[in-house]
Write a structure and sequence with these properties.
By secondary structure, the chain is of the alpha+beta class. Helix content is 42%, strand content 24%.
Length: 742
């Protein structure tokens, strides 16, 4: 601020003297100066105000971009959870609710995914599979679990898509709900099938929470074989179901830090139906009135009008607002952020008020000074313009940079900070000035070596550059890169320091996530190497790596395998078409899975369930092939033995002419062969039961047969053997000797 000069009223009145042309010229010039200073003050005040508003607008735009990235990151966390569940289910094709409960337990869902309401398996049931599925669920719950629509009146689909199991526990009452009956959920399910990617529904009410708020359902298809088919038709044909999870929209917004009180956030789905989104599960889907505008507001930070369109949100009383888009799960959303009074006070252009209020006294002072220094006005005006230009440019740099700037004295105490420093640290300038930054901002986790480097630089009066962890006023930890620059006077003495701090929090966290991902990948590969047969091959099929399990099962040493072609273990059991399909698949960059018969070094044959996946380099070219195999030789031998035993049994039955029947004691269903029906002179029925058999038994034989059969089912007897009379089609009785074992 300029030093104050004595006003004319404080000086003795000069003796009157006749006005001279110079005085008149000076008076006119002084008057013009007064008017010009007043006009300049008003204009400068308005300019400063516009600059502050532009800076606020730029800040909101930057914050909107950061919020969009945070929202995508939060959404991707839950999408990755779905991918992990799908990979687990592909690895264990026969998974049921018990395995799902055992899988979900160690995941610590409540701590790692606080917004999650649950994840579920949606099974695809053709019409003829509904009854067996309901019977299986009856064994689980002790009562029949009916397939029932989630949305009454919904358009039926050819197959049923029902909740097979849901985790965490306590939500089993939802098992059997048919998600495809809800148009909102079905639209996302179809999109997920046809793209093979995670899809998200329009806003809706989640079925597994009682909270009356909008939620999002993330959907991921499950394909037979474990990989995504190439065409849409193939994807529908290979579809086995879905894995889904529900997330309340407000909880997802909190994870993305869209609850900062200084900002008025709005998260909008512009294409969703408001009435449909508010329809509770179990009730018909409501429709918007004909004149209603589409769009659902998922987040309304100030709660002033959750039905306002986006245009009305931007054209509001806020000083600044910004609009952006975010694509989540193949769905487009709009993000709107508006300034709040608290944020506007932080960006309030105090300079405009000071210039406006001080314009009049400055104008009078300038006019009085003009009368006294009229002859020197040009030199002073040029000097003032030069100084003002330098100050203005420095002020613009300090005001508009996103980096924090701190000026300190020789002892390291703050003498000035810019607005970016206030924003990053959360402290106001008044709270920072006079403090030593390290004592106020450093936390127990701050690297002592970085602190020692800064302290040594201050004591020696030299510059340095370090990365350091600080803690903001609100308790938030953040990383900054500090470049410390000593300030020197004309005598080259250090008078203070300027610290330029760049927020590198996101970069540090990205590096930490990368390290964690690499560690997880290494742990996964170590696990696979311990429990599977693993090898890697060059694009021409030459083996470049093999683990101990490969050496053990093949009989070759690692030195014998490295550099050898993969046909070293070729057994010749597969034809040329098999290998053509194999190489055609992997050379097109697609994974291949199948069962292969190989030959060990000693000539013995062994079978492996193989997964071969191409690995690409940075240019997108295939660098090598990774093969993961599991020994299935015992299973193959057992299958062969079973086929031989079945063939022997079939030969025996054909030789003796005996008829056979199989009874399921749990369902009462019975299977009979054609010889049984021929014995009774009847055509085979497609389905039979105990009643079908009992109604053909002679009434005198039926009580004894029922008692003997019940004793077999209850374990009282190990065998069933009865001589009974069965009614022939033409009415006579056929004597039959029946034997059975449980």
């Amino acid at each position: 601020m300029a030093d104050t000069a004595p006003t004319p009223s404080s000086q003795p009145a000069p003796p009157a003297s006749p006005a001279t042309p110079t005085d008149k010229t000076g008076g006119v010039v002084a008057l013009l100066v007064v008017v010009m200073v007043l006009v300049l003050g008003v204009a400068l005040g308005r300019w400063i105000d516009r600059q502050a508003q532009a800076a606020l607008q730029a800040h909101l735009t930057q914050e909107l971009d950061a919020a969009s990235r945070r929202l995508r990151w939060a959404f991707d966390r839950y999408g990755n959870l779905l991918l992990g569940v799908r990979a687990w289910m592909h690895a264990q094709p026969d998974v049921d609710w018990r395995a799902a409960r055992a899988y979900a337990g160690p995941l610590e869902l409540a701590e790692r995914f606080p917004a999650l309401t649950g994840f579920a398996h949606i099974r695809r049931l053709p019409p003829d599979a509904v009854a067996p599925w309901q019977a299986a669920q009856a064994q689980r719950f002790g009562a029949a679990a009916q397939v029932r629509p989630m949305r009454p009146g919904g358009r039926p689909t050819p197959d049923h898509y029902v909740i097979d199991w849901i985790e965490p526990s306590g939500q089993d009452h939802l098992v059997g709900l048919e998600l495809s009956s809800d148009p909102i959920r079905w639209a996302a399910m179809r999109q997920a099938v046809e793209t093979g990617e995670v899809a998200v529904t329009a806003p809706l009410r989640l079925a597994n929470t009682d909270r009356a708020e909008y939620g999002l359902l993330l959907v991921l298809p499950l394909y037979r074989g474990g990989w995504t088919p190439a065409s849409v038709a193939q994807r529908w044909e290979a579809l086995e179901g879905f894995v889904v999870l529900g997330v309340p929209a407000l909880e997802l917004a909190r994870e993305a830090a869209l609850n900062e009180v200084r900002y008025d956030w709005h998260w909008v789905d512009p294409e969703a139906s408001r009435a449909a989104a508010a329809s509770p599960p179990g009730q018909p889907l409501a429709l918007d009135p004909p004149d209603a505008l589409p769009g659902v507001v998922l987040l309304d930070a100030d709660g002033h009008d959750p039905t306002s369109p986006v245009a009305a949100l931007l054209d509001s009383g806020a000083r600044a607002a910004a609009l952006g888009e975010a694509i989540l799960g193949q769905r487009r959303y709009q993000l709107v952020v508006r300034s709040t009074p608290a944020l506007e006070r932080q960006w309030h252009p105090v300079g405009a008020w000071v210039v406006g209020v001080g314009a009049l006294p400055v104008a009078l002072l300038a006019g009085w000074a003009t009368l006294g220094v009229f002859r020197l006005r040009r030199e002073q005006r040029e000097r003032l313009a030069l100084l003002q230009g330098d100050v203005q440019r420095l002020s613009l740099v300090a005001r508009h940079t996103h980096n924090a700037i701190i000026l300190t004295d020789r002892d390291g105490r703050v003498t000035w900070v810019n607005a970016a420093c206030e924003r990053i640290t959360g402290y106001t300038a008044d709270e920072l000035i006079g403090q030593v930054p390290g004592r106020l901002l450093q936390c127990p986790q701050t690297d002592p070596q970085a602190v020692a480097t800064l302290r040594a630089a201050v004591q020696a009066g030299r510059g340095c550059e370090v990365d350091i962890l600080n803690r903001a006023k609100d308790g938030r930890d953040y990383w900054v890169n500090i470049e410390l620059i000593p300030l020197r006077d004309e005598a080259d003495r250090v008078t203070g320091f300027m610290a330029v701090e760049v927020d590198i929090t996101e970069r540090v966290r990205t590096q930490e996530r990368l390290r964690a991902a690499l560690a997880e990948a290494q742990a996964l590969m170590d696990t696979i190497n311990r429990h599977a047969i693993v090898s890697q091959a060059a694009p021409d099929g030459t083996i470049v790596d093999a683990n101990a399990a490969f050496c053990a099962i093949s009989g070759y040493t690692r030195d014998e395998l490295i550099g050898a072609p993969h046909r070293i273990v070729n057994s010749g059991a597969h034809d040329a078409a098999f290998w053509h399909d194999f190489w055609d698949t992997i050379t097109r960059g697609q994974p291949w899975r199948g069962e292969i018969c190989n030959r060990a070094k000693d000539g013995t044959l062994y079978w492996v369930d193989s997964i071969v996946a191409p690995i690409f380099d940075a240019q997108g070219e295939i660098e090598r092939y990774l093969s993961i195999r599991f020994d299935i030789t015992p299973r193959k031998r057992a299958e062969a033995a079973q086929r031989e035993a079945q063939q022997r049994l079939d030969n025996l039955l054909r030789a003796t002419g005996a008829a056979t029947w199989v009874l399921d004691p749990d369902t009462g269903d019975a299977e009979t062969d054609a010889r049984w029906w021929t014995m009774l002179g009847e055509a085979p029925l497609p389905r039979a039961s105990v009643a079908t058999w009992a109604e053909r038994v002679h009434p005198d034989d039926l009580p004894a047969v029922q008692l003997a059969l019940q004793a077999l089912i209850e374990g009282v007897s190990e065998t069933f053997e009865q001589t009974v009379r069965l009614r022939h089609r033409d009415g006579h009785w056929v004597w039959v000797r029946a034997r059975a074992r449980l």
